[in-house]
Amino acid sequence: MEGDGSDSLVTIKNIERELICPACKELFTHPLILPCQHSICHKCVKELLLMLDDSFNDVASDNSNQSSPRLRLPSPSMDKIDRISRPGWKRNSLTPRTTTFPCPGCEHDVDLGERGINGLFRNFTLETIVERYRQAARAATAIMCDLCKPPPQESTKSCMDCSASYCNECFKIYHPWGTVKAQHEYVGPTTNFRPKILMCPEHETERINMYCELCRRPVCHLCKLGGNHSNHRVTTMSSAYKTLKEKLSKDIDYLIGKESQVKSQISELDLLMKETECNGERAKEDAVTHFEKLFEILEERKASVLKAIDASKKLRLDKFQTQMEEYQGLLENNGLVGYAQEVLKETDQSCFVQTAKQLHVRIQKATESLKSFRPAAQTSFEDYVVNTCKQTELLGELSFFSSGVDVPEINEEQSKVYNNALISWHHPEKDKADSYVLEYRKINRDEEMLPWNEIEVCGTSKVISDLESDCNYAFRVRAYKGSICSPCSRELILHTPPAPVFSFLFDEKCGYNNEHLLLNLKRDRVESRAGFNLLLAAERIQVGYYTSLDYIIGDVGITKGKHFWAFRVEPYSYLVKAGVASSDKLQEWLRSPRDAVSPRYEQDSGHDSGSEDTCFDSSQPFTLVTIGMKKFFIPKSPTSSNEPENRVLPMPASIGVLLDCDKGSVAFYDVDHMRCLYERQVDCSHAMYPAFALMGSGGVQLEESITAKYLGYQESM
């Protein structure tokens, strides 16, 4: 038993992160359940509403609280908070102007409605778990008796009816035998008291007894009868309890069953964290090394530049010094002038002439230099200014090393899935990549993550075959240049058809009317021509009949199995019908005289929006839906709404037909989203053929199978 208790304490302590309020980052206190199903402390809701209210009244107050890392504001006065909680609070009181605020848990806006906080349920389950956590955390801290005289004794039980804790003696005194209080419910010592019965916050005298599946919240019978949930689907509380408990238990059992996988992934994450730590430190060391190399280069260049400047400076100073000494010699009793004055004192003519001739030349040069003074060197060092503009720009763009291979992008418009999958992509720098690797895998939510399948591709598109029907597949691609690999592209999710693709062409013999219909040479496209031949039959209009539908069927029939095919209806088409035809009465139908008075000749204006599909004549072999004027018309049904807005859908770019002979049903799909638009039962006891009917201008193009030949054609285009 002790071991069980210890395990319970460990479990409680391990769930602390689930017990933290997203607003105040502390353990929940009286948590309330928001409409988005997240919980938040009662006090935090009030503070958030007050914060929003203050943001309307006082911008300065709003700015003063932006520096706080938490959502909580300094606690407002209790009087102001209490006024928020009172029912029927008014806008002109000290209550918030708005009841809409962003949930701290999911950041989506939640609207509390007219009742505000009073319309929220208190999360008693979460509150109980928090209380158990608090007790486990303080372990040795006892809960004292609330009725004892000081000093109080340690309590042994708590009464849920009295909302108080008692020691043994006080419990006997306040719950004597033979009284009503003796029947009160008591539990072990606790500080968490909650009501026995949840009451409706909108109808305070009514107990909760139902669960609204749309709003995902408990409601009372008045909420269902005339309240906000009157048109919502509800279930009994016991049914909701059973269903949710089964789902939760099943999910928990699944997670527990995957415990070894979770532990393995945790170990893997631990290794990845260590590897990231090592790689991060190594990256820092490499960065420091590169910067140190840059510093060394800069120091070398700095020394070289300074040396050149010093040499030029010394040379110029030497020239100035020489020039200065020469000019100083021109001063009286100094230098050249003083020497000349001494020469003038010579009285011997021969000796004077011998010395004076050279001296006179020097005096003349000094005189000329004095008249046209020019410094011996330049003082400016303009030629020695270091130009670092280009280097500064390069250093400013200094970044991490790039592999030089751009990430390819999958072209969603050209990528498609039919009988096979065609994946196309483009590369910003196509010539830089030597090859590509296309990866794909099936998305299976019930099983473990499946590994990626890899295919090496030289071009920019690839056809992938052998994909399972009715499954989601993820595709991505990366580029290679030598051994350098680009990151993977964004994933593209495609849904495969619900059954194997059935290949056929239009039959040009059975029932084909070449006066009204035009079939191309490949027999995969048919057009209805409302031209001269139609005008020649205009006399039929005089007797109140409209022009007929022109039928065309596929050249291959289906007798068993499950098959899918797709086609496109031209946007300009006035009326096109598509579906299947039974071979039982098909030949009789198409070979009968098709005149205006024949009972088998279908008069159809196309304006009934497919209403004729509700009551099929047993003599008709066709099961069709109506498409036209860029709309898809769902046939009328006695079990669903027949309002036009519920039956008329936008025409899909590509329409699919699923024929299940084993199940006896035909369904019509929006191929782009692989979504079923309409399904009905059909008699498949005989061979079934794809069937189409056109009236007025229109065209139908069969979806072409995706093959390697198809890929080559697409690339050449």
TrEMBL record:
Its main location: cytoplasm. It catalyses: S-ubiquitinyl-[E2 ubiquitin-conjugating enzyme]-L-cysteine + [acceptor protein]-L-lysine = [E2 ubiquitin-conjugating enzyme]-L-cysteine + N(6)-ubiquitinyl-[acceptor protein]-L-lysine. Residues 21-72 form the RING-type domain. The keyword Zinc applies. It is an enzyme of class 2 (transferase). Residues 484-711 form the B30.2/SPRY domain. Keywords: Coiled coil, Cytoplasm, Cytoplasmic vesicle, Cytoskeleton, Metal-binding, Microtubule, Repeat, Transferase, Ubl conjugation pathway, Zinc, Zinc-finger. The keyword Ribonucleoprotein does not apply. CDD domains: Bbox1_TRIM36_C-I, Bbox2_TRIM36_C-I, FN3, RING-HC_TRIM36_C-I, SPRY_PRY_TRIM36. GO terms for cellular component: acrosomal vesicle; microtubule. GO terms for biological process: acrosome reaction; spindle organization. Its EC number is 2.3.2.27. GO terms for molecular function: ubiquitin protein ligase activity; zinc ion binding. InterPro entries: B30.2/SPRY, B30.2/SPRY_sf, Bbox_C, ConA-like_dom_sf, COS_domain, E3_ligase_FN3/SPRY, FN3_dom, FN3_sf. Residues 195-237 form the B box-type domain. E3 ubiquitin-protein ligase which mediates ubiquitination and subsequent proteasomal degradation of target proteins. Involved in chromosome segregation and cell cycle regulation. May play a role in the acrosome reaction and fertilization. Interacts with CENPH. This is RING-type E3 ubiquitin transferase. It comes from Odocoileus virginianus (White-tailed deer). The gene is TRIM36.
